[in-house]
Design goal:
By secondary structure, the protein is an alpha+beta fold. It contains 5 helices and 22 strands. Strands 1, 3, 4, 6, 12, 13, 14 and 22 form an 8-stranded antiparallel β-sheet that branches. Strands 2, 5, 7, 8, 9, 10, 11 and 21 form an 8-stranded antiparallel β-sheet that branches. A two-stranded antiparallel sheet has the order 15-20. It is found in: Endoplasmic reticulum lumen.
């Protein structure tokens, strides 16, 4: 019943939704996707494998494309059946990522590429113009974020100012970017909202409405000193006459001191407890303090309102362009649509149907590896102990039990033979 309900939901959503691109990476995926020539002549281009990886929920349904080998630029792209014009419409881009290699440093993002970049697709790479770059990027602990870069009408690639943390484990996760015609957006991870807001606020599409007046200068009588010296505080009389050190009154001349040989004896000096160093007046709160001076704000002459920042150029291609130190990331279930409900149902029917079994398989494999590692550790420890015993034998420090038993047997035989001789 549950599977039938999901199928019915997907069918209803499909009727209402416009699906521009949908890729589950079946056995004919290579007919739809092309590797780029970028970096290939330098031997720096990676390859793509069709696999579900070592752990999965369904061996066939969970097959995607996996990066290989390490330290490579990985680029691949596909053409959408028709141009995507998101004027007045929602736009949703979604895909799943599994960092099966336990990502240490590398990208896991997707790109939506405009029709205008068609002539660049054969060498699709880092310099190819795109409209959206979206997905996880990891490099140690310093970078663990979801990239959300949008290209404006001036060709600038603008990164969101709102930080969103990505998933860093080795399981499959779904990333969704939803742009809306009211200039708002949502970012979802595993169908749960991770960020939302206004495009105008979270991206620098526009110059600021106001700026600090570049011509303004701090007035000469502006006092920004928080504390000042107390003008009423006076240095006490005789303050400068207090010596830094004084003679140790308890010191005594040693009995064996010889003035002719040792010179004239002088008592040692001690720090003077009354000496307080150079005098300075006490500090008090400045009654004339006006605060930190800031230039006044004025209208920015370069400000220009851009009404429809959600709108992208006509889109025609979907691609992955990334650098990975350690390869092994698997991408699957790529979707471009105008319906967020369909995207949610699609995610639940793919990733959602596999996630529990994938987790069970992952845990089972992790336990097996841990058990094997522990067994190997014990085996190596036993081998080390045996080696220590052999070393003692060679040095004559100890004898193995079987050798000692043999010695006792020989001694016993000799004693019986002596007794027989005595009877004769």
């Amino acid at each position: 019943m549950k599977a039938v309900a999901w199928l019915a939901l997907c069918c209803v959503a499909a009727v209402q939704a416009k699906v521009y691109f949908e890729e589950k990476f079946d056995d004919k995926w290579a007919d739809r996707w092309q590797s780029s020539d970028w970096k290939r002549d330098k031997g720096e281009a990676g390859d793509w494998q069709h696999t579900a990886g070592e752990w999965y929920g369904d061996a066939e349904a969970d097959k995607g494309i996996q990066t290989s080998p390490d330290h490579r630029f990985h680029t691949i792209w596909a053409e959408m059946p028709e141009e995507v014009d998101n004027t007045g419409k929602d736009l949703v881009v979604q895909f799943s990522v599994k960092h099966a290699q336990k990502m240490d440093c590398g990208g896991g993002y997707i790109k939506l590429i405009p029709t205008s970049s068609k002539d660049q697709m054969k060498t699709f790479g880092g310099e190819t113009r795109y409209a959206i770059m979206f997905g996880p990027d990891i490099c140690g602990f310093s970078t663990q974020k979801v990239h959300a870069i949008l290209t404006d009408n001036k060709g600038r690639n603008l990164e969101t100012k709102k930080a969103t943390t990505c998933k860093t484990d080795e399981l499959t996760h779904v990333y969704t970017l939803h742009l809306m015609p009211n200039n708002t957006y949502r970012i979802l991870i595993d169908n749960e909202e991770a960020a939302k807001g206004a495009l105008h606020e979270d991206w620098d599409f526009e110059a600021p409405k106001q700026i600090k007046d570049p011509e303004a200068k701090k007035p000469e009588d502006w006092d920004d000193r928080i504390m000042i010296e107390d003008p009423e505080d006076k240095k006490p009389e005789g303050y400068d006459d207090i010596p830094a050190t004084i003679v140790d009154a308890e010191a005594k001349r040693p009995e064996d001191w010889d003035d002719e040989e040792d010179g004239v004896w002088e008592a040692p000096q001690l720090p003077n407890p009354d000496f307080k160093g150079p005098w300075s007046p006490n500090k008090i709160t400045n009654p004339a303090y006006k605060g930190a001076w800031e230039a006044p704000m004025i209208d920015n002459p370069e400000y220009e309102h851009i009404p429809n920042v959600y709108k992208l150029p006509l889109l025609k291609f979907v691609g992955f362009e990334l650098w990975q130190v350690k390869s092994g990331t698997i991408f699957d279930n790529v979707l471009v649509t105008d319906d967020a409900h369909y995207a949610e149902a699609f995610a639940n029917a793919t990733w959602g149907a596999s996630k529990e079994k994938e987790m069970e398989m992952f845990n089972a494999i992790a336990k097996k590896k841990a058990d094997e590692a522990e067994a190997k550790r014990k085996e190596e420890e036993a081998a080390r102990e045996a080696a220590k015993g052999e070393e003692k034998d060679e040095d004559g420090d100890s004898l193995p039990q079987d050798f000692e038993a043999l010695s006792r047997s020989v001694i016993s035989d000799e004693e019986e033979e002596d007794e027989a001789h005595a009877e004769l």
